[in-house]
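hey so u asked for the seq, here:
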Amino acid sequence: MIVREARKADLNAICQLSNEINEDHYLHMPHDFVKPDGSNRDEPYWLGFMSMDNSAVFVTEDNGVLTGAVAVSVSTSAPYPFLTSRPRGHVATIVVAESYRGRGLGRELMSAAEAYAKEKGAEDIKLEVMAFNSDALDFYRELGYGNFSFRLSKSLP
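ran it, structure tokens below
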């Protein structure tokens, strides 16, 4: 198993992995997430991380088969004048193929994302977890992630 930076030639496989996580999100939150159709509709999303400065996509590969992917970015601009302006890492998406879960690939991908963010000067790294995804929340806590804020939602009548 190797971890490496993604290439454009990986986009089809990355999109298929993305469809797995999108299906899970859609099943739990159909009002917010579009049902995956098996296509590469997320290609512009992943390509954006591969193309922008201070962002990257890393993949895990097993004998030529992509088994996981993570998108990471580092931003130095503060979105609000009351926040300190310093480099902050952000994990936008991580997915490991269902058939490869439980083998440490998520840890390897997160390690690559954290190393990238640190290399780009980030002092910390943040991510968002959907409330239904208790397995992911447990995983991130095992890696040392803690609460930063709570994002709440309410349906309006």
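The first strand starts at residue 2 and ends at 5. The radius of gyration is 16 Å.
lmk if thats what u needed
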